[in-house]
Structure formats: structure tokens, C-alpha cells
Design a protein that fits this description.
Layout (H helix, E strand, L loop, with lengths): L1 E6 L5 E7 L3 E6 L10 H10 L3 E6 L15 H16 L4 E6 L1 H11 L4 E7 L16 H10 L3 H13 L6 H5 L4 H6 L4 H8 L20 E6 L4 H13 L3 E6 L8 H12 L4
Parallel strand pairs: 3-4, 3-5, 5-6, 6-7, 7-8
Antiparallel strand pairs: 1-2, 2-4
Length: 272
């Protein structure tokens, strides 16, 4: 494993780790996650390092990466493009997105970032009444909490409105050792909210959403996940003409490295 840093278009330093040699697979984490909190990514990379160059970067504002205001989703497209340029020589690569990292991957491909194929694990989408939609003012409320010096309130809003955690469980989470780390990156929760757009509104996906994505897409969900995530994965797969839906046995809103790595190996190794 090696570590490096690339400079994004706006001058922000983006830190990453890389394993192995071969065709690149770039991993994008979902909301609140980064390299220090997702050891699964390193384990997946080690399982694939015999045939691929697996790269996992800290999204801006998290971990060892920098952050530059003001935020726009386009800055994260540029971050991903910088990583691809460094580790893939600028040629299209396989991109794997966990959860809302899948939205970022799709949005980046739509914007023209060089992507050869996409793997999306349970992108959070709400197109029906399977669960309450995100509040229309979700991003604004997140930004306001952080601006007022109340990052914990932003984390609570994410946990309840986005994750669906019952409010009575918040006390235990606030008292856990993970809470300070969540507060430290609370401002980035709104970044994911902006990448989600209106895909958790409870309405069907817009016809023009991701209409420029013409590369192969594999949409995954576990067979033990929350019903709304399974429904969302089906909606995304049905929305994209180049997509295939695959159910991962025994998994929920995460997947064991030894289960996920063979799926990535098979899809990333396909021609075309």
C-alpha cells in the first residue's frame, strides 16, 4: 500500500491510498465516511491488489484531505478527476461508490469525468412511500446548524432524516466514541445532500437525471438491507439503460470484503 496526495483544480489537497497494480478501481465513500473509518476499503483493496490498482481517497473536508470554500458538487468531480489523472493516467477507470458515494459517482460520470464503468452499492433513493422523504430544506438546515456552531445538530438531522434512526437512540450515539469524529466532519454532510439532489424526495427520478451516463453500471443491494434501499437500488437500475441489478446474499447496508471483492473483480475485468 502506498499513500499520496493530488492537488485538485481549486488547489485543495486530496489524500489517498493505493494498492496493487493493474487497471484502476477508485472507491468513493458515502456520507461521513473516509479512510480512517472504513477499514473495509483497505481489505477489499488487498483482495484485489493482485490484478488491479485500487485507490481510496478522502473526500474533501474529511480525513487527511483539505477543503476550500465555497463548496460546489463540481469541486468533488474535480477531486475525482485529479485522482483518476494521477492513478489512471487520465484514462477512464472503474469507479465504485458506497451509498451516497454512488450518487457522486453518477454525477461525476454525467459531468464527463473519465469513467469506464460504475459499481453502486445501495445508492439511497426514495421514489415512493417506502419511507419518509428528506425534508425539502434538509441541506439548508444542515448548513445553518454548522454555521451556528452546532455541528452535533447537523449530525442528528442526518441520523434521523437521512439514515432513519429513531430519535430515542440518539442519546447512545452522542455518548459513543464515534461522536467527536462525526461532529468534526459535520459540515460535509451537506455536501452529500447536494449530491443527492431530489433523489430522496419520494418522487420518481427525473427523466434527464444521469441521461449522459452511457457506461456499464452495476447496481448492488444486500438481501438483508432496509426495504427502501432495495427499492432505491431497483429504481436506479431501472432508470439507467446500461445498468444491471445484482442482489448480494447475506448483506445489508455494507458488505463483507470477501463477498464484495469477487463481484468487483468480475465486473471490473469485463471488456467494454
Amino acid at each position: 500500500m502506498s499513500e499520496g496526495t493530488v492537488t485538485s483544480a481549486d488547489g485543495t489537497a486530496i489524500a489517498y491510498s493505493a494498492w496493487g497494480e493493474g487497471d484502476p478501481i477508485v472507491i468513493i465513500d458515502g456520507a461521513t465516511a473516509h479512510r480512517a473509518t472504513t477499514p473495509e476499503n483497505a481489505a477489499i483493496a488487498e483482495l484485489l491488489a493482485d490484478g488491479f490498482r485500487v485507490v481510496n481517497h478522502d473526500r474533501r473536508g474529511r480525513g487527511a484531505s483539505g477543503d476550500t470554500a465555497p463548496y460546489a458538487v463540481e469541486r468533488e468531480f474535480e477531486d475525482l478527476a485529479a485522482v483518476i489523472d494521477r492513478e489512471g493516467g487520465g484514462r477512464p477507470v472503474t469507479v465504485f461508490g458506497w451509498s451516497s458515494g454512488g450518487h457522486l459517482a453518477l454525477n461525476a460520470a454525467q459531468a464527463g469525468v473519465p469513467v469506464a464503468r460504475l459499481v453502486l452499492f445501495e445508492p439511497p433513493v426514495v421514489v415512493d412511500g417506502s419511507r419518509p422523504p428528506l425534508p425539502d430544506d434538509y441541506v439548508e438546515r444542515l448548513d445553518a446548524a454548522v454555521a451556528a456552531g452546532r455541528p452535533g445538530d447537523a449530525v442528528e438531522l442526518f441520523m434521523t432524516a437521512a439514515v432513519g434512526m429513531p430519535p430515542e437512540f440518539l442519546g447512545d450515539v452522542r455518548g459513543s466514541e464515534m461522536w467527536p469524529g462525526l461532529e468534526a466532519i459535520a459540515h460535509t454532510i451537506a455536501y452529500d445532500g447536494r449530491n443527492l439532489g431530489d433523489t430522496m424526495s419520494g418522487r420518481p427520478l427525473r427523466a434527464d437525471l444521469w441521461d449522459g451516463v452511457d457506461v456499464p453500471v452495476l447496481v448492488l443491494h444486500g438481501d438483508r438491507t432496509w426495504p427502501f434501499l432495495a427499492a432505491g437500488a431497483r429504481a436506479v437500475a431501472g432508470h439507467l439503460p446500461t445498468a444491471t441489478l445484482q442482489v448480494v446474499p447475506g448483506e445489508n447496508h455494507s458488505a463483507a470484503p470477501e463477498v464484495l471483492a469477487p463481484v468487483l473483480r468480475a465486473f471490473a475485468g469485463k471488456e467494454g
